[in-house]
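Q: what sequence does this backbone want?
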């Protein structure tokens, strides 16, 4: 089966969307001195319902290397948004705790995400959105095998 798809077009669209999303995150947190990746990580941590958050969670969610996740976590720690706590059961694991400074941003983060979603999904119906997600998921699976 032969398709006449333009892989370059897919790559350009993916990169453009990623850059636009990064720019939006940066704009929402312009006053916090957070980079785009730090902002996205903080959004992720603030949205987690669980108590125990670890570096591995960030690595898995964003599909990034341990070194990249470690750098983001270190930067968030240096800026006072998180603290790391050694666990008694396994000294190799460090639990990530959100500080009061991070928790104060929670309502603003939720508002920013809602605004971003409205902007991003404007003029896109539920069926189009679902199709987009299905196609992206299939492409990721294809590249993972």
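A:
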């Amino acid at each position: 089966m032969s398709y006449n798809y333009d892989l370059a077009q897919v790559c350009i669209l993916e990169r453009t969307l990623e850059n636009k999303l990064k720019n939006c995150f940066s704009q929402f947190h312009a006053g916090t001195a957070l980079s785009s990746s730090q902002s996205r990580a903080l959004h992720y941590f603030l949205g987690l319902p669980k108590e125990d958050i670890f570096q591995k969670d960030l690595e898995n969610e964003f599909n990034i290397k341990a070194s990249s996740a470690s750098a983001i976590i270190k930067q968030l720690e240096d800026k006072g948004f998180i603290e790391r706590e050694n666990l008694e059961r396994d000294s190799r694991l460090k639990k990530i705790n959100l500080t009061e400074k991070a928790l104060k941003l929670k309502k603003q983060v939720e508002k920013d995400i809602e605004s971003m979603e409205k902007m991003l999904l404007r003029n896109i119906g539920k069926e189009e959105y679902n199709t987009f997600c299905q196609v992206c998921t299939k492409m990721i699976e294809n590249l993972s095998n």
